[in-house]
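Journal club side-thread
Mid-discussion, someone asked how the predicted structure for our own chain would compare to the paper's figures. Pasting it here so we can look after the session.
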Amino acid sequence: MVQLLEMNEGEDTIMRVSTLKLFFIDALKSLKRNKTISTAAAATVAATLFILGVCLLVLLNVRTGISDVRSKVQVQVYFKDDITIDQQKNALNKLTDVPGIKSIKYESKSDALSKFKNQLGNDNKTLVEGMDTRNPMPNSYVVSVTDSDYASGVVKALKNKNGSSIDGIEKVQDGRELINKISTITNTVQWVGIVIFIILAGVSLFLIGNTIKLTVYSRRREIGIMKYIGATDWFIRLPFVIEGMLIGLAGAIVTIVVVYNLYRVFFNRIRSSFLTMNIIDPSYVLTVMSWEFVLAGMFIGALGSIVVIRKFLDV
């Protein structure tokens, strides 16, 4: 009896595998018959996933950059020209009580001018002509903090109760404004990417749906016979779902190849220009994003098929 049950289970498994194989072959034949519209549907899926991939890479790199910038934020404490030694010591004492400070470095007028010259480069030397004799740069403290959140503590420590700077301090400048601007740009890119993705996903569903409609129409007689002999709804739907998933898979493969190669070129150019810049490695596209593309593509394909079949077939 046990052997008989095991034989029946084994036969059921073989039948299921054979049925899936039959559905798969059937889906490939259908795609070949409707080659033009199937290619258009796969191309639209690829375009949809390409937009998604570009937005994801931009967001990941910007967030990585923001984290890097946050850990390297410096607060510049500029002194007045007539600051006294006691006032300078008072400012230093206030800073030592602020949490999150990595280092406090004194930067002289001459050091500040040298740094400014290096930033301008050789092409803009004319802009700093005459500054050596009459240096406009102020003396300052350069305060490095462990995270940009601690920058506000530095600013607050050097303010009086009425909001003005303490004696001897001209201005306190932190890097939070840059981080806020980058965050705003990141959010804008994110929402624009989401809108474009939704639009292209809708177009993909429409094209995949039309592909499935052509297949259903060409096989309407066969489907009618299957329904008449008692085939289940999912037995009828599954070949079309597989067909949609294959279209999505084809689009995903195209996207992986295009995104990887384009991003690799971008990475190599940026890396050679900005050696200290921390950006996502191209291998991330193959190891992580490729699976996301495949799953997203097959999901779009399956969804398009299911929606169309539900409306088109009275099953």
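Post-session note: The domain at 74-174 is CATH 3.30.70.3040 (Alpha-Beta Plaits).
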